[in-house]
Design a protein that fits this description.
The chain is an alpha+beta fold. The protein is built from 15 helices and 19 strands. The relative contact order is 0.19. It binds flavin-adenine dinucleotide (FAD). Flavin-adenine dinucleotide is lined by residues 23-29, 46-49, 54-56, 58-60, 65, 147-148, 176-178, 181-182, 185-188, 190-191, 368-369, 396-397, 407-410, 413.
């Protein structure tokens, strides 16, 4: 069973021989192990934590949004500038093939909204258990509590991996140690040093899919308030006003929610060169400021004795209506007839271009993924083998790739693990 203690390995490893060592038992490493073992290779996975797949268990709030129903072209587009790199891996294990693969392991999947895909069990544990059982049935050795420290390298050839439990000899190594996000769940950037040891360049890791901290403190008073289908954009020259659209959440220190997470890495990048990033939020992106202004004027003349808050409350969730009135400087008891022209303008602006100032992110502790990592420049996308050291492969978040919320990152972890494992197994 997956997650056995490391005693067995400590006793046996000197006598065992392996073709491939995989560093990291996350989704990428476990899938790589299965794919490599299916080619007949003898595979060992070393995992620094005392159990495999800890981060996988936390995905999708424990429900594991493992992929989505996008086409491969859409996947490529969602990985941005470097998206082309993922295509061969996605071709090797397509999103529908991942679902079939899991179904064959008795983990059927469902897509309740036609886009996000989850295990029908609604449990990330069932996915981890299936991967563990598949690996075990292929005689993959999973060693927990074994942190990989250095590559064994002789004259640019792989000889194995030095771990906290000793040297494991093998001619091929797959680095699948993930990024730097959520250190408690294994995100320690534990594979970066080994990649650098092999001569690979590292792109500075920054937190991605991370909540943002704002200079304004009022969101904290309304923490938990969600804004459905808002539009958010970076209010700086050169950044598109279309921004991104999706659900947003007010938090104790600022803002979060899918649309904020998706924009967060870009903001984190700007924060490296300036202290503050102005952003704007259209709470009602389909209603222009002029229409709101006309609506408020209409309330003033036709429902003048009603509180403005009560009228707005009929159009928006109560806590959001309260927050916007506060931002516009309209005390709650104000009746519609008392609303000044200036207050009307401020409220219309707050509804269509609410201004906030981002001064930081919640950092790697709360970042769901890492932007940056091992540069793609020296990695062959068709095999995921290093172009610098033959026999060295990469899979998953360790590489300089990150996708948005919605199952993109796990699909990449599984597909890249599959391709790296298969390539290393056949090499
Ligand atoms: C809270 C949370 C929720 C998420 N939800 C989703 C979701 O619903 N859908 C989605 O697509 N993505 C989600 N993600 C992102 C997704 O979990 C990651 O993209 C994915 O886990 C990356 O897989 P990986 O195998 O590359 O790395 P990881 O899952 O990070 O696994 C790497 C493993 O390597 C081990 N390791 C590191 N260094 C060493 C070393 N030196 N020696 C030995 N072992 C080492 C680590 O302990 C870890 O177990 C979520 C992330 C978080 C944090």
């Amino acid at each position: 069973m997956i997650g056995k203690n490391s005693e067995k390995f400590s006793k046996d490893w000197k006598s065992a021989s392996f073709d491939i060592v995989i560093v990291g038992a996350g989704p990428a490493g476990l899938m790589a192990a299965i794919a490599a073992a299916r080619t007949g290779a003898r595979v060992v996975v070393c995992e620094q934590l005392d159990r495999p797949g800890l981060k996988l268990l936390a995905t999708g709030g424990g429900r594991c949004n493992l992929t989505n129903t996008s086409t491969i072209d859409e996947f490529v587009a969602h990985f941005g500038r470097q998206g082309r790199f993922i295509r061969p891996a996605l071709d090797a294990l397509k999103p529908p093939t991942l679902r079939t693969f899991l179904e064959e392991l008795h983990v059927p999947t469902v897509s309740p909204n036609g886009f996000h895909v989850y295990p029908a069990s609604q449990s990330a544990g069932s996915v981890l258990q299936a991967l563990g059982q598949a690996a075990e049935s292929l005689r993959v050795e999973i060693v927990v509590g074994a942190k990989a420290i250095r590559l064994g390298l002789e004259e640019n050839l792989i000889t194995g991996v030095e771990t906290t439990q000793g040297l494991i000899e093998a001619r091929r190594v797959i680095l699948a140690g993930g990024g730097q996000s959520y250190p408690k769940l294994g995100g320690t950037g534990g594979g970066y040093a080994m990649a650098e040891q092999a001569g690979h360049k590292l792109i500075e890791p920054i937190p991605a899919l991370v909540p943002l901290i704002t200079k304004e403190t009022w969101p904290g008073q309304f923490a938990g308030t969600s804004i459905a289908s808002a539009r958010i954009w970076i209010d700086l020259k050169g950044y598109p006003r279309e921004g991104l659209r999706g659900d947003l959440l007010l938090t104790h220190r600022g803002i979060s929610g899918p649309v904020v997470l998706d924009l967060s890495a870009e903001i984190a990048q700007i924060l490296r060169r300036r202290a503050e990033v102005p952003i704007r939020i259209a709470v009602t992106p389909d209603v222009p400021a002029a229409d709101w202004s006309a609506q408020i004027e209409c309330w003033r003349t036709q429902a003048g004795r009603k509180q403005l808050f009560t009228l707005l409350d009929q159009k928006l969730p109560a806590s959001l209506a309260e927050a916007l009135c506060q931002v516009a400087g309209i005390p709650r008891p104000t009746i519609a007839a008392q609303v000044s022209a200036e207050q009307r303008t401020r409220l219309s602006e707050a509804l269509t271009g609410l201004s906030l100032t981002v001064i930081g992110t919640e950092g790697f502790d709360q970042a769901m993924v890492t932007r940056g990592g091992v540069s793609l420049r020296d990695v062959d996308p068709n095999t995921l083998e290093s172009r610098l050291v033959p026999g060295l492969y990469f899979a998953g978040e360790i590489l300089d790739l990150d996708g948005p919320c919605g199952g993109y990152n796990l699909q990449w972890a599984f597909s890249s693990g599959y391709l790296a494992g298969r390539s290393a197994g056949k090499a």
